Amino acid sequence: MFAAVDSTNSYLRSLALAGASEGTCVLAESQFAGRGRFDRPWYSSPDLNLTFSILLHSPGTLAHPGTLSLIISDAVARSVEETTGRQVETRWPNDVYLNGRKLAGILLERVPAGDELTVAGIGLNVNQTLFPAEIADRATSLKSETGKEIGREGLLARLLLSIERTLADEPAAVLRSWRSRFRFIGHEVTLVVGDRSVTGFVEGIGAEGELLFHDQTGATRRYYAGEIQRVLQ
Fold this sequence. Notes:
The protein is of the alpha+beta class. It has helices spanning about 10-15, 65-85, 140-145, 150-170, 170-180; strands at about 25-30, 50-55, 90, 95-100, 100-110, 115-125, 190-195, 195-205, 210-215, 220-225, 225-230. The chain folds into two domains: about 10-180, BirA Bifunctional Protein, domain 2, CATH 3.30.930; about 190-230, SH3 type barrels, CATH 2.30.30. The strands form two sheets. It has a six-stranded antiparallel beta sheet with strand order 1-2-6-5-4-3, sandwiched between helices. The longest helix is centred in the N-terminal third of the chain and has 18 residues, at about 65-85.
């Protein structure tokens, strides 16, 4: 555990390249270069949240590496629900929302070491109640939603155990669990893929964790990466 580090993902990735074993975890009270997907900054006030990374070996049973993203997301969702008794929402590919606001984010990065190792970075807003103006209207925390201070050590233990158990589950069962919290099926959305945006309807999530997307040409396409940016209806 560190009082401060540039990025738990970057630090753990360097450890992995130096031979760190599966299950190695790096936890920091503060990150001065924390980041999320697409290199967006991750805002987290010191000593209030959980920001950590864990080194995982992608199970050989996964149909596609992208499925791991949903597995970790589902483990986080289960832990939050067990802690708060509140039902959360998952958003493709890996965010966790509560009451329509972002509660947790996940960043997966492969380690080019030939052993199919992945660094899974997790940021979970726990006791922070004030957020930067640019995200204040779309971020939340467990304390903001429950009105209670949450013990972070117990929550971390529960979360790590949930990740271990979820990784051991059958991927198909985990995907069913993840889908049960996904609210966008049947909705028209704007999907951002790389530098372009496409509009269409979400048909579901495939067996490999991909988004099944019915676009304006009438075709159903499979997307393994991207972001649902806006819900139109």
